[in-house]
Amino acid sequence: MNANRFRQIWSTKKNFFSTNKLRPAQTASQAEADVDILSKQDAQVSQISSGITVASVENYSPITRISAVVKAGSRYETPQNTGIVHLLRHCAVLSTKNHTAFALTRNLEMMGAKLNVTSTRDNLIYNLKCSRDNIDDALAILADVVSNPTFKPWEVEEASHMLPTDLALHQSRPESVLFEALHKAAFRGGLANSLYSETFMIGKHNSEMLHNFVHSHFTPSKTAVVGLGISHEDLEKSVGGLVHLHGGSPDSDGASKFAPGEIRIEADLPLVYTAVVAEGASAAKRKMHEFFGVLQNILAGNHIDDVQNIQLLVKLLKDPTKTLFWLYLLNEYQVSGLNVNYSDTGLFGAYIVGQPQDMKSLVKAVVTQMKEVTKNITDSAVENAKHKLKAKLLLEADTSDGAIAAMALDASMHGKVRDDKELERAINELKLADIKAIAGKVMKAKPAMASLGRLHHTPHVDELL
């Protein structure tokens, strides 16, 4: 760069950063006053003429998120089609009546949109993310995928080839294997069904089975569409004009009941994974759901590094020189709470990981500690737990993914969406006496248990009663 050119650039920079170029404070204030401030919008919920529930929050984000929630999770599978929801997760971008699989993928990529499908035992959830400018075209694709799948035999066969990979990943994660075993041990009925297809069913699902399942469960009364970053009028109009679902008679109502049992899976693993649970709260019963959330935080607040707790746990170990406190410091064990909620019931208890030789003392110590804590719940413990629960829920709702997940659950389960103030008020109204009563009932109940690993020193469930 020659000297004259450098001086020219430097002179330009000095003029750009000159204080003479800065606006006076009064002028800046006037400019800010001319800007329209976008006010916060509350959630809006309605049921359109077809019977589909529509919920939305306009947050003015440049990215719009839409979720179509269908009550068609794995709990609704039958013995004849078990694993079909697992396959449906891979059929999100297969051909529809209006698009080929290639066209769906190409159009989504050209818009910079993302479409994926997740499932729980209760729901099958279609998630769409796109820019606000492309929402009309992206919603048309989402509606076509949900309303008009064709399930061409050759495409279904190709999609089924993905299931063994999913199963291999599932089997490589001990936590995932334990969680599936826990549901089989705890429930009778639909909630005992796995999120994954059985190996013997891979390749046996066909187009007719998929069509029958979709026709039976993809009905307006079982569907909710929620949006974040879109006006309610636009979402209502799009769903009403594009999503066409017809009623059907389901093969399974997904009914389940808590029926505690035990499953033990011997495996050559360096650690043992165990879960001990009682029946928890239904997500449909909001107050009970919140009671169990507070109780979970009370138990989580009683860490083992408390002096009194250490003394209690030491007494429960055969070797007093190897306390749980030192095992914890050496990362030789982990204990965390479980609080899982479904539409009609739930699971509440503890998830425990430890060395095979320590599991008998460890599991018994954890169960005893939980019983001791729930016998002596104080007002201060309840208030601390309330603050923790509110912080957790509000922080989750502060992210776009967390907000739309909470909206989807509320709209699908309750037909309305609670705002932050309503949530805080509901938690604040919970009483100590009620929490004590629920805690006492849970700790007296017969638990279900699942264990995975080298189980020669892991106690059976009847030894914990």
From TrEMBL:
The listed locations are:
Mitochondrion
- In Pfam terms, one family for this protein is Peptidase_M16_C
Q: Which keywords has UniProt assigned to this entry?
A: Mitochondrion, Transit peptide
Q: In this protein, which residues make up the domain named Peptidase M16 N-terminal? A: 54-196
* Cross-referenced SUPFAM superfamilies: LuxS/MPP-like metallohydrolase
Q: Does the keyword Lyase apply?
A: no
Instruction: Indicate the segments forming the Peptidase M16 C-terminal domain, all copies.
Output: 207-389
The UniProt GO MF terms for this protein read: metal ion binding
Under the heading InterPro entries, the entry gives: Metalloenz_LuxS/M16 (IPR011249), MPP/UQCRC_Complex (IPR050361), Pept_M16_N (IPR011765), Peptidase_M16_C (IPR007863)
The record's section on Gene3D superfamilies has: Metalloenzyme, LuxS/M16 peptidase-like
Tell me which GO cellular component terms the UniProt record holds.
membrane; mitochondrion
| The name this protein goes by in its record | Cytochrome b-c1 complex subunit 2 like protein
User: What organism, scientifically named, is this protein from?
Assistant: Argiope bruennichi (Wasp spider)
